[in-house]
Specification:
- The chain is an alpha/beta fold.
- Among the domains are: about 100 residues, Spore Coat Polysaccharide Biosynthesis Protein SpsA, Chain A; about 110 residues, no CATH class.
- The chain is built from eight helices and eleven strands.
- Strands 1, 2, 3, 4, 5, 6, 7, 8 and 11 form a nine-stranded mixed β-sheet that branches. Strands 9-10 form a two-stranded antiparallel sheet.
- A hairpin with a 2-residue loop joins strand 6 and strand 7.
- Helix 7 packs antiparallel against helix 8.
- The longest helix has 28 residues.
- The protein starts with a strand and ends in a 13-residue tail after the last helix.
- The mean pLDDT is about 90.
Amino acid sequence: MMVDLTVVILTKNEEKNLRKCIESFRGIVKRFVIIDSYSTDATEDLCRILDSELEVIGSKLDFYQNKWVDYATQLNWGLTQTNITSEWSMRMDADEELMEDLANEIKEELPSIGQEYTGIVLRRRVYFMGRWIKHGGRYPELLLRIFRTGKAMCEQKIMDEHMILSEGKTVNFKHDLIDNNTKDLEWWTNKHNWYSNREVLDQQMTVEKVLNEASLLENGTSTKQAKMKRKVKNNGYYRLPKFFRAHIYFFYRYYIKLGFLDGPEGRIFHFLQAYWYRFLVDAKMYECEKLNRRMKPQGELKA
């Protein structure tokens, strides 16, 4: 039995990740919608092959291309402009996949969810260099990913965009979604260098009150974890002195939250993600303040 569900996935050069993402659903989904921002690798060819394979089991994959503006704009375009008629929709990243238990849970539980529930919160575990990053406060990430079609949109934010329900309640599923990007460390560092520019601009806009936080996450229904993280970040972390806060954050993640238990892969991940990245953001903030410069809006990742 297939679930009345459409899965929307954004892609840009994802030939290495997309197949394992699609196959992790184990044939339970009626339709996949790929929103591609003009990949230069074999992503489009792979989508044609996957569509042919899915057709055999009564499913399908529709491939669309749309010019990239930002993540939220691209995702919301996919949710509204691709003729989604299923009862449920789902947001997935190409480097994510379902664990078998989660695929079974979606198949068994989603069709019987009461009408008062319009959103499903999933648990995500992150893999880095093939290792599950279980410590350092990284697990589980609670994310609103499945929702009744038309009842949720991605908040229009530069960083840390979350899905927001327009009405209804959420229910938590028990099993895990995996973030398991197979690209190399050079790609990862390039991506986080790009992220750092977005984060500086986001913080500049937040300080200037160009972005009204009250109209984003706080006025919509999302996860308590997402709301708490944003409050801690804006009202706690960013109130600490530049550079010093990167030291504190890494110490908290690696020692207090036991990140050292994640082995050599965890040492690399927690240092780069909790120290190097946060220090780089502060360095760029310092540069902008010293030179009275505003960070330019970021296009899509070129890595």
